[in-house]
From TrEMBL:
InterPro entries: YdhG-like. Residues 19-133 form the YdhG-like domain. This is DUF1801 domain-containing protein. It comes from the Bacteria.
Length: 155
C-alpha cells in the first residue's frame, strides 16, 4: 500500500488511526538510534532513512537521482513493515537480529529478505528495532553497498 504523501508529516497524517501510534513510535525509536548522517524523507511511498546525495553523490544505482536507501518504515495493507537493507546485505547483522529477536518478542518472526512484518501491533519489539537502526554507520553502509553492487555487477 504505497502512499502518495510527499512529506513525512503528510504520511503520518494519512495513517489509519489504528496504525498511527505504532508507526509514530517506530519512527521515534529509529530516529533516536539512527547514526549521524542518515536523513529521513519520503522514499518509495514510505518513510525512508537514506544516505543523502551530499554524503553519497552517486545516489542509488537503480536511479541515481534518488539518495542511497538504508531503511524504510511503512503501513502496508495487512501489517506494519520495517525494511532494513543491512539485514539483507550484511550476514553479521542478519545473524545478530535472528539471535536477538526471540529475546524481545515471543511472536514468530515474519520476515522476508529485508522486510520485517508486524501483524500483531501490540507485539512490536521497539527496543530491538532501535538497536537494529544503530547497527550500521553511514560510512559502513556505503562500503557494504558498494561491495555488494560491485560483486553483483561482475556476475
Amino acid at each position: 500500500m504505497q502512499s502518495t504523501a510527499t512529506t513525512v508529516e503528510q504520511y503520518l497524517q494519512e495513517l489509519p488511526e489504528e496504525r498511527k501510534e505504532v508507526v509514530e513510535k517506530l519512527r521515534k525509536v529509529i530516529l533516536k538510534n539512527l547514526p549521524k548522517g542518515f536523513e529521513e524523507c519520503i522514499n518509495y511511498g514510505m518513510l525512508g532513512y537514506v544516505v543523502p546525495h551530499s554524503l553519497y553523490p552517486e545516489g542509488y544505482h537503480c536511479d541515481p537521482k534518488l539518495p542511497l536507501p538504508f531503511m524504510n518504515l511503512a503501513s502496508q495493507k495487512n501489517f506494519v513493515a520495517v525494511y532494513h537493507m543491512g539485514i539483507y546485505s550484511d550476514p553479521s547483522v542478519m545473524d545478530w537480529f535472528l539471535a536477538e529477536y526471540p529475546k524481545h518478542c515471543k511472536n514468530k518472526l515474519d520476515m522476508g529478505k529485508s522486510c520485517i512484518r508486524f501483524k500483531n501491533l501490540s507485539k512490536v519489539p521497539y527496543e530491538l528495532i532501535g538497536q537494529l537502526a544503530s547497527k550500521i554507520s553511514v560510512a559502513d553502509w556505503i562500503s557494504t553497498y558498494e561491495t555488494v553492487v560491485k560483486t553483483k555487477r561482475k556476475r
